[in-house]
Amino acid sequence: MSKQHEIAVIGGDGVGPEVTEAALAVLEATGAPFNFTHYQAGDGTLEATGVALPQETLDGAMKSEAVLFGAAGACAAQVILRLRAELKAWANLRPSKAYQGVPCLRPETDMMIVRENSEGMYFGGEDEPEPGKATATRIITDHASYRIARCAFEFAIQAGYGKVTAVHKVNVLKKTDTVFLEACRRAAKEFPQVAYEEALVDSVAMRMVLKPEDFQVIVTTNLFGDILSDLAAGLIGGLGMCPSANLGDGPALFEPVHGTAPDIAGQGKANPTAAILCAAMLLRHLGYTDKADAVEAAVAACLAQGQTTGDLGGPLGTMGMAQAVIERLGE
Ligand code: ATP
Ligand code: MG
């Protein structure tokens, strides 16, 4: 018998458990040798136990090979930010790809945003030296910039993309973005088979809307990556479609970009596409390329033929769509 991979499953709050169950059903149907263990976290757990992220959940995630995460509610910062930090997940990969059959602004969109996840504006801290005056510190290191740039180039090669765009604001953030860009250029030299360009974040925001096909892999710092990946999600038809991966030195964590969607939670109608595409990313990460391709193709086929949930105009519920994806796995 082949090796069993230990996968920690954290459904969390709101629609999190529902879309995660759909993704699990698809993973099980692929026949990949996974052993799933369920763990608690989120607002519900906080209410029941007094902690949002119990030690048992953290330990379970740490000893797994990968984590499948749903969504966390008001306590998200205590759960997902902490998990990313504990798992040393310094890279956040957010694909945005338009699918036939899904109403969207820019059907040409097919890009991956590789966002630095360990520093930037999120970890430098803020201060309020006097009332009415506050400061924020942006930390950019060569070490973190170089490793995220390498990650972007490696991803480009693995996924067959031909270009990496480093996104910055060096005309204003002269010191920090010089460190970032110099590290990116060093990485670019190691991957001469991939084209490399640099672009200012403001111009990228406009070009992404006007001509998204200009972009393949984008590598950028934490805050710019956060903003641009939501912009990219908007181009392809919204949050219900977007998976993400958090990668680094520990187990990888996969989560839909959307949140708990409290307005539709508990009704079995959440769109499981993002969660199922997370499952495909997880398969790819653990080396099951053929199975990942099969899941993505099955999702694309369902979307193209309207076998979707109500938010996309389809007739199916969450598990109904999962079932439709499963039925197409062999095609
Ligand atoms: P949170 O604070 O957890 O992010 P939120 O209220 O911001 O919660 P989101 O999950 O970010 O909610 O969703 C924003 C909107 O998109 C909601 O109207 C929600 O119903 C819709 N939405 C999000 N995810 C899905 C999904 N998987 N299927 C269908 N609709 C969704
Ligand atoms: Mg939200």
Automatic annotation (TrEMBL):
It is an enzyme of class 1 (oxidoreductase). Its cofactor is Mg(2+); Mn(2+). Belongs to the isocitrate and isopropylmalate dehydrogenases family. LeuB type 1 subfamily. Keywords: Amino-acid biosynthesis, Branched-chain amino acid biosynthesis, Leucine biosynthesis, Magnesium, Manganese, Metal-binding, NAD, Oxidoreductase. The keyword Metal-binding applies. This is 3-isopropylmalate dehydrogenase. The keyword Lyase does not apply. One of its GO terms (biological process) is tricarboxylic acid cycle. Residues 6-325 form the Isopropylmalate dehydrogenase-like domain. One of its GO terms (molecular function) is 3-isopropylmalate dehydrogenase activity. Homodimer. Its EC number is 1.1.1.85.
